[in-house]
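Give me the fold.
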Amino acid sequence: MKYKIDSQVRGVRIISGDEAKERRSVLNQLINLAEAAGCQEIILPSLEPAKIYADKAGTEVLDQMYVLKDKKSRELCLRPEGTATVQLLADKHLSRNKDVKFWYFERCWRYEKPQEGRYREFFQFGVEVINPSSDKVKEELIALAEAMVRVKTSEFDTVASVKRGLQYYTEDGFEISANKLGSQKQIVGGGAYRQGIGFGIGFDRLMLC
């Protein structure tokens, strides 16, 4: 069940009842799959320095970020995605560690036109592998992402090599889409970056499958 209150911000939702229970059930299954693959949870901050994304995100993300200044005029933003922060963590603390695997489930924010499966406040489930030692890690992550999508649907298409919009990708990435969702059909997007490789699941779109 969804509720609305007076003066509710556009592109956000209040969810309760059976829908909230189903979301929790699906989330728990994604967590089980991630942890069976050796991933540990990481919890990311919602508020970050806006400059984190200046060199890492593509134009689309930069144009959609919620940016604000704090009381000391520092430019901050509500996190638009998860991978950029994990990259900084890898540089500072994990440069000598191999096969560090994280999963996260976070709220993210982007100022875009709200529509079914696409909201200004949305939920992302992510998996990241830092300094992978396997030369088959991409195939392994695609298989994991497909298993996660199957929690909700068996009707999807995987593209193993595709150009991705974020600037930090170092090679063609991969995507999983469900045609039944129409124009907003992409559920998973991922690829390799300098410190590792990972993917993100649009949880709200997955729930529509």
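Helices lie at 17-36, 59-64, 83-93, 137-149, 203-206.
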